[in-house]
Design brief:
Blueprint lengths: L35 H28 L3 H4 L14 H8 L11 H31 L5 H10 L5 H15 L5 H26 L2 H9 L4 H12 L1 H16 L3 H6 L7 H9 L8 H33 L4
Protein name: Carbohydrate ABC transporter permease
Pfam family, one: BPD_transp_1
Keywords: Membrane, Transmembrane, Transmembrane helix, Transport
């Protein structure tokens, strides 16, 4: 006789197990993909995406057309014959005032402005934010409040005093003067971001490092920096976008030989001499906006992470 009991046989001394046909996975039922809510949500997102992508599409197809085809008037039609001559002319031949070497001169001016401005402003702001978050000193809150107030002062109010200061320093109209301006104006918001990010990190890490005898720079370089990649990406994107797209400071604090790319783009688009070449204007606009667009697409995921960690915590 077999000693194997059936699954339904009760074990001696144990309470009987109640089974039911209704037993099974519990929880909320999975939502349907084509629910009314999803249709409305994706419909709104699709309309918003179309709203922003349509001008970009018009710019791209216009920049790839010749002027005879543009004069036909159908701006939404794809080019019948693709040509890259407008792009070549926008980069190397279009007149931006007295110079007719296209956007190439302005591009390299913008690069020479961008790199030191981004590096210096982020380096100083990261150390300042780290000090304000972890090394409190007497008057640190007052200093931080004054620094943040500076972020809300309109730029136009400070243009004339800055012109006088740069002139007395002998750097007005030079790339060095514009680098100083961008570095200073980027400091308040970047310091706020770094301070909030470092304040959101576990305080036990800082205390443990202090107990082990680590100093200001050791904690900053060995503990804070490796954990701060997302907020550094946020700061880089904000500075790259703001400095590269700036027009006001570029036209005020530089001269024609040192104009950044945005100022030269304005001179090309608003030129009143000769034939209005819309394909060249569109190509020049796309070339000018390519750098911040590429930077954002390459590091967009880290940008979202850093904003969530450094802008709402602390």
């Amino acid at each position: 006789m077999s000693n194997v009991s059936s699954p339904n046989t009760a074990v001696a001394g144990a309470a009987p197990i109640k089974t039911s046909l209704s037993d099974g996975p519990r929880g909320r039922r999975p939502k349907r993909m084509l629910s009314r809510r999803n249709i409305m949500l994706y419909g709104i997102l699709g309309v918003a995406a179309l709203y922003y992508l349509l001008p970009l599409y018009v710019m791209v197809v216009t920049s790839l057309k010749g002027m005879p085809e543009i004069r036909l008037g159908n701006i939404f039609a794809p080019p019948m014959e693709i040509t890259f001559e407008p792009w070549v002319k926008a980069w190397a031949e279009a007149c931006t005032g007295l110079n007719c070497d296209g956007l190439s001169r302005g591009f390299w001016n913008s690069v020479r402005i961008l790199i030191p401005s981004v590096v210096v402003s982020i380096a100083v702001a990261s150390v300042s934010g780290y000090a304000l978050a972890n090394w409190r000193f007497k008057g640190s809150e007052l200093f931080f409040s004054i620094l943040i107030i500076g972020a809300f002062i309109p730029y136009q109010v400070m243009i004339y005093p800055i012109v006088i200061v740069l002139r007395n320093m002998g750097i007005y109209g030079t790339l060095t003067g514009l680098i100083v301006v961008h570095t200073i104006f980027g400091m308040p918001i970047l310091t706020l971001l770094f301070r909030n990010y470092f304040a959101s990190l576990p305080e036990e890490l800082f205390k443990a490092a202090r107990i082990d005898g680590a100093g200001f720079w050791q904690i900053y370089s060995r503990i804070m920096l490796p954990m701060a990649l997302p907020i550094f990406v946020v700061a880089m994107i904000l500075q790259v976008t703001g400095i590269w797209n700036d027009f006001l400071f570029g036209v005020v604090f530089t001269r024609p030989d040192t104009y950044p790319m945005t100022v030269q783009l304005n001179n090309i688009v608003n030129s009143v001499q000769g034939v209005k070449e819309y394909n060249v204007n569109m190509a020049a606009t796309l070339l000018t906006g390519a750098v911040p667009l590429i930077v954002y697409f390459v590091s967009g995921r880290l940008f979202v992470r850093g904003i969530a960690a450094g802008a709402v915590k602390g």
